Amino acid sequence: DESVSKEQTYRSVERSLEDLRQELEAANRSRDSALRENRSVERSMEAVRQELEAANRSRDSALRENRRLQDDLAAAIQDCRVANHSLEESRQEVENLKRQLQDYVDEVRRVEEILTLKSLDNAGVRCLTSLNCLQEGERSEMLEHFRSLSVEATVLESNNHSLESEAEETRTALRVAQEHVADLERQVFSRDALVRSYENQISELTVHVASLETQLRQQMELRQQTEADLTAVRELCVNIDDQKEVLSKQNSDNDIVKIHCVVHVPTLLCSCSWRVCSPCPDITVQLQLETGECVVHVPTLLCSWRVCSPCPDITVQLESELSRLREEQEIMQQRAAKDRAAVSSLEDMLADSRHEAVEQRAANQSLQAQVAQLQTNISDLQEKLALETAEVRRYASQAAALNQQVTELQREVVNVRFNHARATEGQSKIKKEKHQIPNFLDAQPDSTWNGSSSVETKQTHPRERTSKSRYCGTALSCVVPPALKQDVFYLISATARPYEAAPYREDNIIYLARSTFSRKINPIKDLKQIQRSEKVNNKN
């Protein structure tokens, strides 16, 4: 019975070992798959890190470009403010000049009315000398000068309007650019927050991968320990096989002893004191093995007619055999106890191995789930990174477009400055001429308006008109009667101010010229008739 139980225990141990080997192989396969997935996850993480670094570099370049565009925009805004300030100053100056011109016109009209009333008596002689001085060529030249100044004034006005429109367009473009830059800044801030969240997720994933690597290292150590335990179990199995063979041999020997345990002694020769007894057929020496003890029954040796004493040689032999069997029984009991302890330790080891295999299977399943989740997170991060890369490229293109717009705005600001400087120079030149002409007119004495002085002035001041300023001096150096002095001053003032409104420009000058040389020359016609009549009288 003990051998059968040992055989069953051995078979159960072998089945448990086979199950343990299968579980270990499955755990090894799952560990290898987890290692492969971990390597793939590490490669994916490295690719994601590289893409994140590229996205960070592109974001930094976009931020630098944005800062540069902001600086350019601030410079353009400052230039636009300066241009607007200069334009406002020029506009105020134009308004002041218009008011001054209007005051001059009112003063000239008042003086003209006063002088017209005072110069009715000697208008004939003075008009005659003025007609000799102001000829038709001078009038046409003055009108040409006025037309050129009028054209220049028109150009200046158109430039002023164009400057105003360009300044307004520049303000609008700057406002739109500021709004767009603010929108870009908000988008960049949101992208920065998103990138920071991605970095936090990647750091968490890195920590998680490190923990998974630690768990994998622990699993590998556990595998090595399990392999060492399996090697020990194999050695124990080999020892158990050897002990099984030994036990099987001993069991076979014990069976033979048990079968032949009864020894029949058919003939016992008992040596008595002086004779040999006859053999007793009922004398039997029986050896039985009962409950692990060897009991020797030596019945009474019955001879035919009397009882003989037992043989001392047989008793010694039986006692030695009994002691040997008891020693073998003790040895077998010790071996059986050792086998029971080994089997119990092996069963405990198998239970521990089975429990560890179950835990390893659960850990592998959790690792596979975590790896799948990591792969899902990596795919999501890759998609988000692709979207962010597209957004960064779009922002780069927008930044390039804004840079081009800023360059165009700077070019327009430079053009505005140039036009403004040219207009300011023209206005200063006109203002200078305007201040020179009344001073020159006021500096002429009234004694130069008689006939003899007019002739001398004509002789001493030839008509050299090489420039407009020289033309003014030559024209005013001619003898002009006091009655026409204010009219000529009004004519030259209106000519020197070409940016005045239409009623004070060419139409006014033409009307003034016509009124001066037609309406006011009517007394001269009477004087001519008087001179003709005097010549006729002298001839007669």
Automatic annotation (TrEMBL):
Region of interest called Disordered, as start-end residue ranges on this chain: 441-467
Q: Coiled-coil stretches, from where to where?
A: 3-114, 160-229, 315-419
- Provide ranges: composition bias, Polar residues: 445-457
What keywords appear on the UniProt entry? Coiled coil, Cytoplasm, Cytoskeleton
Q: Where is the composition biased (Basic and acidic residues)?
A: 458-467
Q: Where in the cell is it found?
A: Cytoplasm, Cytoskeleton, Microtubule organizing center, Centrosome, Centriole
Q: Which GO terms describe its cellular component?
A: centriole
Do you know which InterPro entries this protein is assigned to?
A: Centriole_BasalBody_StrucProt
Q: Which family does it belong to?
A: Belongs to the CEP135/TSGA10 family.
What this protein is called in its record is: (California timema) hypothetical protein
